[in-house]
Amino acid sequence: MTEFRDLFNKMRWLNKIKMEDILKDYKPSEVHCIEYIGRNADSNVTKLAESFYMTKGAISKLTKKLIEKGLIESYQKPDNRKEIYFKLTEQGIAVYDIHDELHKEFQERDKAVFEQVTEEQYDSMLSFIAKYSRHLDAEIKKQGLEIDPVE
């Protein structure tokens, strides 16, 4: 497990340098929220909270900041005046596009390693990740944990 943690920490640290330089006006949680909204139509507080393992209250604060910064806007559907959804503004789309391009750049940087992975190795890795994720989900449920906000 130490090797996995070290690998992800190293990758995050290396990517963070460029991300923070180019997207310095935004917190990582804001950028990832923008990414989620950009990729998922009809995003709402519940969907965001589930995706980020954050409380609905924390997501409400985050989306409020994004609205104040002009990155997202809220809307309601004519047939559901109760639920509030979010979509990107032009400024939010610009941040989304920058973030997406950075991820493509990181993938290109790491392409040489992934090109050497066989389909069998890749399937094995994905299988392990899915199995471990299910285990963690079960532990969260078993312990009745409330997910804390993550920055």
Quickly give the structural class: mainly alpha
Name the average pLDDT: 90
The radius of gyration is 18 Å
Number of helices: 6
Major sheet: order of its strands? 1-3-2
* Main pleated sheet: 3 strands, antiparallel
Sequence of secondary-structure elements? HHEHHEEHH
- Strands, count: 3
β-strand amount: 5-15%
Distance between the termini: 23 Å
Helix content: 55-70%
Q: Please tell me what the overall shape is.
A: globular
| Low-confidence residue ranges | none
Structure explained in plain terms:
The chain has helices spanning 2-22, 28-39, 45-52, 56-68, 90-114, 119-142, and strands spanning 43-44, 72-77, 80-88. It has 151 residues and is mainly α. Helix 2 crosses helix 5 (90-114). It is globular. The two termini are 23 Å apart.
Keywords:
151 residues; single chain; 3-stranded antiparallel beta sheet; mainly alpha
Task: Provide the fold topology.
Blueprint: H1 2-22, H2 28-39, E1 43-44, H3 45-52, H4 56-68, E2 72-77, E3 80-88, H5 90-114, H6 119-142
Antiparallel strand pairs: 1-3, 2-3
Helix pairs in contact: 1-5, 2-4, 2-5, 3-4
Concise account of the structure shown:
The chain has 151 residues and is mainly alpha-helical.
